[in-house]
Amino acid sequence: MKYLKQLIFTVAFIAAFSSCNNVFAAGPPGPPGGGPGGPPCWPPPCVPIDGGISFLLVAGAIYGGKKVYDISKKAE
């Protein structure tokens, strides 16, 4: 139970202060005319990072859940 309170406090602390920076700020708009003749994305190094971040978040949640489960089983 002690570890669960620490975990909840840590997650709440990180969530409260992570919105203070501009990590999720949008960049400037792309050039006009992005139709069929225009570039597929702007700026040119088009790297999709959503899939990797989502995978890491899910893997971290599963790992954290297992650790909490193991600690609760050990306490019994």
Describe the protein in words:
By secondary structure, the protein is mostly helical. It has a domain at 49-76. The chain has helices at residues 2-18, 50-75.
* Alpha plus pi helix count: 2
By secondary-structure content and strand pairing, the structural class works out as mainly alpha
User: How many E strands?
Assistant: 0
* H and E string: HH
Average pLDDT metric: 74
> Uncertain runs with pLDDT below 50, 5 residues or more?
none
The major β-sheet equals: none
Q: Mind telling me the C-alpha Rg?
A: 20 Å
Shape estimate: elongated
Tell me the fraction of residues in β-strands, as a range. under 5%
Helix content: 55-70%
Distance between the termini: 11 Å
Short description:
With 76 residues, the protein is mainly α. The chain has two helices and no strands. It has a domain at 49-76.
List the helices and strands and how they pair.
Blueprint: H1 2-18, H2 50-75
Q: What labels describe this entry?
A:
elongated; 76 residues; 2 helices; 0% strand; mainly alpha
